[in-house]
Amino acid sequence: MRSVSLVLLCLFLISGLAVGGFLRFAEEVAMLEPPAAISETDAIVVLTGGSHRIDHAIRLFNDGVGDRLLISGVNPLTTGNQIKNMTSGSDALFECCVDIGHDAIDTIGNANETARWIREHGFSRVLIVTSDYHIPRSLLELRRVDPLTTYTAYPVAFGNLKTENWLTKPEVLRLMIGEYSKYAWARLSEVAGTRTASGLRTDQEPSLPEDDMVQVGTE
Asked: What is the Cα–Cα distance from 121 to 124, expressed in whole angstroms?
């Protein structure tokens, strides 16, 4: 009887920690806002996936933020011209200043693809554009791969998480729980120091992309 009670207590504590961690994660995401000062940014990296991420990045670049733009995690079948036609980018912009990254297949791949691009160009201050719910895990993986670069997050709002009662919306709740699970696993992996796959197509067999890695041009 005592062993059963102990197991139940452990399950209760683990459940409480999981719920508490999720609520802290959700609050952190809900409070994210675009940075006030980004004028000293060297470059912009946008992680493909949620809607309007690339448009936000192009608008920022056109406003004078950064000297170059990387679109990371693009499906190999998607060309720069297709992305240009789907967004507000111009021919001149894509010819001079935009790089298309086709190698990343997940967030870890984004980090490795981005770090490689940063080394090639000698950047040190980079603006990361991605959906708000994706920011914590993206920064975790980026800083783990490249701790020397200064990363600033520019969140693209998935919804009004600060004021909406999103807990009553199954689709949003499912997305947030899924993202928190991935983030928690990434944190555990970091603490344990476990080695993970590179997330790059050139290093492994092709696989289906994550939920947050929408194939640009095939949506």
From this structure: 9
Cα dihedral: 112, 116, 121, 125 (round 10): 30
CA dist list (Å): 141 to 18, 133, 158, 168, 183: 21, 14, 21, 30, 10
* Token pair recorded at residue 109: 């791949």
- 86-121 tens-digit pLDDT: 887 888 899 999 999 999 999 999 999 999 999 999
Q: What is the pLDDT of residues 135-164, one digit of tens each?
A: 999 999 999 999 999 999 999 987 766 666
What count of residues does the chain have? 219
Fill in the amino acid letter for 41.
Answer: T
43-203: which CATH number, 1.10.3470, 3.40.50, 1.10.20, 3.30.70?
Answer: 3.40.50
Q: In terms of DSSP bridges, do strands 69-72 and 150-156 run parallel, antiparallel, or are they unpaired?
A: unpaired
Coil vs helix vs strand at 193? coil
How many Cα atoms sit within 13 Å of 115 on the Cβ side? 21
Which residue in 57, 19, 29, 27 sits closest to 41, CA to CA? 57
Q: How far apart are the first and last CA of the chain?
A: 55
Structure-token pair, residue 180: 């928190």
**Domain boundaries along the sequence of the chain:** 43-203
